[in-house]
């Protein structure tokens, strides 16, 4: 799948701005960004539900949106809101979706039986879907999205309403699908989920601000992240906030995570600066993480936007 110059305008509002994407097959590809960053709009354009204002899209060898109807046979789509039928049983939901997706009667029963077992719903097949727990609804929705064995699966913030254990279990299911050859596009605003993806795109205000594997993205920030332990963390934070070479200071418990603008800061220099402000502290370098990548990418884009033309 690839997209070139993908743009969507709603009146004067640019929701997605000239985004270029290249998604390998059998890859779990993540869209990371806050609400309103353009993740859902991008996904809807890629699967043919929304017509782009500009740009070229090719998905599974098909040109979108011109061949969107043909594409529907080869993709699955799951949103953050449970969208199956509450007043049908678990099995009835899957049987209905199998029929809609064109499975023959011969293939329908073994496929539904397999999905019920695979997603641990076989003991609840006669239970009304509306009475399931959040995690169970999520597994049912995923089973419904892949009942026709799609080559490509779109997931729009699918874990936003479930507990951490259900989220972990859900991601295990995604990797099983990827191992079987399914390409998966998943949007999220959880950093821990983004770290799980094979590749990742970070969106901010409709702009693609970073793209690569989590390891590639974090490696670019080597030497720029530090942990500060101080008896008075608020005082230490005040000493670093607003410094021209400091990009961000985040308090995590009694510690501070410091992200520098460039990778030439030394531990001794930071310690000395804190000492001069009366905040004696221990400073050590720590590996960068995706939250650091997100801060750098979005701040850099904001700085560019503020520069005079």
Short description:
The chain is an alpha/beta fold and 309 residues long. 36% of the residues lie in helices and 27% in strands.
Structural description of this entry:
The protein is α/β, with parallel strands linked by helices and 309 residues long. It folds into 2 domains: 2-218, Rossmann fold; 223-286, Alpha-Beta Plaits. Helices cover 36% and strands 27% of the residues. It contains 11 helices and 14 strands. It has helices spanning 39-46, 68-71, 90-100, 105-118, 134-145, 164-179, 191-194, 214-219, 233-240, 267-276, 290-306; strands spanning 2-10, 13-22, 28-32, 54-59, 62-64, 75-78, 152-156, 183-188, 199-204, 207-212, 225-230, 246-252, 255-260, 281-285. The strands form 3 sheets. Strands 6-7-8-3-9-10 form a 6-stranded mixed sheet, sandwiched between helices. A hairpin with a 2-residue loop joins β4 and β5 (62-64). α3 (90-100) crosses α4 and α3 packs parallel to α5. The model has no long low-confidence stretch (mean pLDDT 92). Keywords: ATP-binding, Nodulation, Nucleotide-binding, Transport. This is ABC transporter ATP-binding protein. GO terms for molecular function: ATP binding; ATP hydrolysis activity. It holds the Pfam family ABC_tran. Residues 1-230 form the ABC transporter domain.
SSE diagram, text form:
Elements lengths: L1 E9 L2 E10 L5 E5 L6 H8 L7 E6 L2 E3 L3 H4 L3 E4 L11 H11 L4 H14 L15 H12 L6 E5 L7 H16 L3 E6 L2 H4 L4 E6 L2 E6 L1 H6 L5 E6 L2 H8 L5 E7 L2 E6 L6 H10 L4 E5 L4 H17 L3
Parallel strand pairs: 3-8, 3-9, 6-7, 7-8
Antiparallel strand pairs: 1-2, 1-4, 4-5, 9-10, 11-13, 11-14, 12-13
Helix pairs in contact: 3-4, 3-5
């Amino acid at each position: 799948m690839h997209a070139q110059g993908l743009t969507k305008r709603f009146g004067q509002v640019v929701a997605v701005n000239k985004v270029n994407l290249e998604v390998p097959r059998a890859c779990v590809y993540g869209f990371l960004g806050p609400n309103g960053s353009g993740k859902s709009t991008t996904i809807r354009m890629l699967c043919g539900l929304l017509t782009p204002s500009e740009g070229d899209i090719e998905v599974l060898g098909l040109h979108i949106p011109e061949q969107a109807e043909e594409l529907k046979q080869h993709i699955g789509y799951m949103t953050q809101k449970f969208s199956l039928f509450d007043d049908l049983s678990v099995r009835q939901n899957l049987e209905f979706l199998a029929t809609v997706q064109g499975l023959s009667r011969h293939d329908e029963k073994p496929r539904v039986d397999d999905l019920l077992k695979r997603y641990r719903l076989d003991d609840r097949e006669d239970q009304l879907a509306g009475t399931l727990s959040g995690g169970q609804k999520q597994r049912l929705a995923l089973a419904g999205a892949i009942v026709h064995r799609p080559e490509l699966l779109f997931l729009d913030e699918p874990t936003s309403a479930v507990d951490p254990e259900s989220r972990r279990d859900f991601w295990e299911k995604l990797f099983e699908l990827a191992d079987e050859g399914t390409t998966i596009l998943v949007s999220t605003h959880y950093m821990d989920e983004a770290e799980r993806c094979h590749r990742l795109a970070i969106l901010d205000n409709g702009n693609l601000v970073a793209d690569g594997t989590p390891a590639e993205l974090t490696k670019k920030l080597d030497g720029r992240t530090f942990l500060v332990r101080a008896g008075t963390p608020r005082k230490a934070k005040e000493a670093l906030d607003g410094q021209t070479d400091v990009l961000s200071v985040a308090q995590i418990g009694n510690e501070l995570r410091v992200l520098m603008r460039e990778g030439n800061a030394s531990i001794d220099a930071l310690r000395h600066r804190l000492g001069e402000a009366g905040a004696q502290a221990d400073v050590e370098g720590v590996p960068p993480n995706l939250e650091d990548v997100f801060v750098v990418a979005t701040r850099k884009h904001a700085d560019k936007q503020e520069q005079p033309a």
